Amino acid sequence: MTRDGYDTTHPLTLPSYRRDDVDAHPPLLSPGYKSTVIRAPHQPLVYLPQRLTEVTGPLLGEGRLGEFDHDLTRQHDGEPQGQRIIVHGRVLDGDGRAVPHTLVEIWQANAAGRYRHILDNWPAPLDPHFTGVGRTLTDERGRYEFITVQPGAYPWRNHDNAWRPAHIHFSLFGRAFTQRLVTQMYFPGDPLFFQDPVLNSVRDEQARQRLIARYDHATTRPEWALAYEFDIVLRGRDETPFEDEDDDE
Amino acid sequence: MSERLGVTPAQTVGPYLHIGLPWPDGPYAVPEGTPGACWIRGQIVDGTGAPVVDALVESWQADPDGRFDHPDDPRGARPSTVPGFRGFARTETDGQGWYGLLTVKPGPLPTPEGETEAPHLTLSVFARGLLHRLVTRVYFPDEATANAADPVLRGVDPDRRDTLLASPAPDGYRFDIRLQGEHETVFFAV
Ligand SMILES: [Fe+3]
């Protein structure tokens, strides 16, 4: 026994997270997105068993949040330009279980499609009342909500007349290192999808659809804001034998 | 009972991650002034040898006793004996592609197979041009015996193992990351 009572002779049983389907994520080398060509590793990834470092992870957030971190329209003295929107949803794992109290971080361009970033200098206006950064924690049912403005599309130099469809960048921790996810949320019906190699790097049509939010009329607030629902699914756990006993299907 | 859902696909952080992800206290897995703290610094380069100036590195690790303050550690969650230990750092690269994080060396870890993992940090690398994070591990040069017995290192092609080994530096360690090509860093599928 160690000083804190942990029995070192007892075998260690770890939770294990299901590995993602091959087509769930984009291949690292997706030549339509040009910078992957010099940045994607050439060697195949080496299989890493999930051990203590991988099945644990930072549980952050409490104490990191300011009063208006979830409301990107109230972070300055005045209101930002653009269509006010509510973006909400649930963070779930692959078994449909809520991921509670997990940090959700977002960043986005303003209504004109420009980021408040030193390297973004295309001729669209900055908005003195919009930073474009949000943070929140999911509640006990895995729910989150942001209030922001509809981001604009923006040009980039990847291919001829290249434009990114409007999107919001999302960053999630889940409860284990294996669940860490950075992704982007898109808006339904965007006419720019067809030419976007980032969205289309996800080859499976169903998986790609999971990146597109749903217009949510029930949550849309009259005379105030349109609402979009975006659920995010992190990896599920392999069931342990103990949990199977509870499963009466 | 539970429905099986498809996971949300990963997407790149893009070129403007700096507005959303860096934290003022990001690089500090332990507070400045922590006894025994060391800097782990390195340069990230792409397949052309150019520094990657728009990357973000995150680290996660056990504390010096090999413990995690996390409910899924079957040995029990235990707050670290190192005051202010977070175990997590987040650091963006600078104009020359360098990142840096302040931490303390983790302890060794038991495995379910009864082996011992050598002290290590697990890193995630995010950048424009990476559609999914890359995962790698940092091992320590002064742990030759533990490294030789480490089940993960033993599973890596011997010619590539040294890409997972930090080298000594004046105030800690240096761990460069080569995304592609000659001496490409070993990246893992978790
Ligand atoms: Fe973007």
Mean pLDDT of chain A: 92
Q: What is the count of structural domains of chain A?
A: 1
Count, helices of chain B: 3
Unreliable segments of 5+ consecutive residues of chain A: 241-249
Give the % helix of chain A.
under 10%
Main pleated-sheet profile of chain B: 5 strands, mixed
Largest sheet of chain A: 5 strands, mixed
CATH class of chain A: Mainly Beta
Biased composition (Basic and acidic residues) (chain B): 64-76
Protein name (chain B): Protocatechuate 3,4-dioxygenase subunit alpha
Domain Intradiol ring-cleavage dioxygenases (chain B): 39-181
Keywords (chain B): Dioxygenase, Oxidoreductase
Describe it for me?
The complex is a heterodimer of chains A (249) and B (190). In chain A, 8% of the residues lie in helices and 23% in strands. Chain A is mostly beta strands and 249 residues long. In chain A, a hairpin with a 5-residue loop joins strand 6 and strand 7. The longest helix of chain A has 6 residues. Chain A is globular and about 60 Å long. The C terminus of chain A is likely disordered. Chain B is mostly beta strands and 190 residues long. Chain B has a single domain, classed as Protocatechuate 3,4-Dioxygenase, subunit A, CATH 2.60.130.10. Helices cover 7% and strands 28% of the residues of chain B. Chain B contains 3 helices and 12 strands; from the N terminus they run H-E-E-E-E-E-E-E-E-H-H-E-E-E-E. In chain B, strands 1, 4, 9, 10 and 11 form a 5-stranded mixed beta sheet that branches. A 4-stranded antiparallel beta sheet of chain B has the order 3-2-7-8, with no helix packed on it. In chain B, strands 5-6 form a two-stranded antiparallel sheet. In chain B, a hairpin with a 5-residue loop joins strand 5 and strand 6. The longest helix of chain B has 6 residues. Chain B is globular and about 40 Å long. At the A-B interface, helix 1, strand 1, helix 2, strand 3 and strand 9 of A face helix 1, strand 5, strand 7, strand 8 and strand 12 of B. Chain A: Keywords: Dioxygenase, Oxidoreductase. Chain A: This is Protocatechuate 3,4-dioxygenase subunit beta.
